[in-house]
Amino acid sequence: MLDPLVLIFLTSGLFLGWALGANDAGNVFGTAVGTKMVSWRTAAIICSIFVVLGAIVSGAGTSQTLGKLGAISALPGAFMTALSAAFAVYAMTKFGLPVSTSQAIVGAIIGWNFFSNNPTDISTLTKILSTWIICPLLSGVIAIILYQTIKFSAQRVHIHMIRADAYQRVALIVAGALGAYSLGANNIANVVGVFIPAQPLPPVQIGGLLLSSTQQLFVLGGLSIALGVFTYSKRVMMTLGSDLGRLSATSALIAVISHSIVLFMFASVGLEAWLAGLGLPTIPLVPVSSSQAVVGAIVGISILQGAAAIRWLVLAKIIFGWVITPVAACVLCFIGLFFLQNVFGMVVI
Length: 349
Known about the structure:
mainly alpha; two-stranded antiparallel sheet; 75% helix
C-alpha cells in the first residue's frame, strides 16, 4: 500500500509542474495569443494535451542529466529541492516574467549539494550552463534564418490576404502543439527528475500495461504542467506576446517554430543516436530553458526589424529574472533542508 507521506512529498514536484505550466506556456503560445491569432482558451487546451504527451512519450532522456548533477535518494530531500525551485519560479511568475524552471531546479540541486557536502559534478554543470548561453543564441539564429527564408518566399508566392490569415492561424496552432510536446519532453525532468532516484511509487498494472515508478512520475508531472497552463498562464503569455517586441503573425509563428526546434534538439534521444552514428558531435540531452529559447527567437526577429523594435527595459527585467532564479532556488533549498533536518528531524540526504 502506498504511504500517504510519499504523496505529501510528491506535492512539491507537482507544485513545480504547475509553476512550469503557468510560466512556460507563454513560451509556446504567448506570441500567438499576444497577436490575437489564437484565443487563450484554445491555446491552453492544445498546450495541455501535447505537453502531457511529450512528458510521457519522450521525457526520459533529459531526466538522466539532472541525476548526474545530484542524485537525491532521500525523498524529503527531493521534496525540498523541488519545492524551492517551485517557489522561485512562482515568485517570478507573479511579476509576469518568463523565467527558467531549468535554472530553478539546477540552482535547487546545487543547494542540496552544498547542504549535503556532496560535490557538484562540474562536467555536468558545465554542460548545463553552456546550454543557457547556446539555447537563446541558437534559437535567435534559427529565427533569423526562418524569417529571411519566409520573407524571400513570400515575395515570389502571392497568396490572398484572407487565405494567408487562415494559413497563419493553422500554422500557429500546429507549431504551438509541437512546441508544447517539446516542452513536455524536455522540461519534465525539471518537475520530477529529482524524485526518480528514490523510486517513490510502486509499479502499477493497468490492463496489459505495466507502469514503472518513473513512468507514473512522468504522467503526474505532465498533468500538473497542464493544470498550470489552465489556471495561471495568461499573464506571462501577454508579456511575451506583446510586451517584449512588436511581432506580426508571421514573426509569432517563426518564434514558436524556432523555440520548438531548439527544445526538441536537446531532448531527442533519436537525434543524439543518429548524430553519433554519423560520427558527428552530439547535442547533449539537457533540460534547456524554453523561456530562453523563445526570448532568443523574439530578439533575433526584432533585430532584423531594427533595435527600436526591442523593448530593452522588458528584456533587462527578463534577464534579471534568469540570473536571480537559480540563486534564489539555491538559497531557499539550503534553508529549507536545514529546517527539515534540524526542526522536523527528517533524513534529507
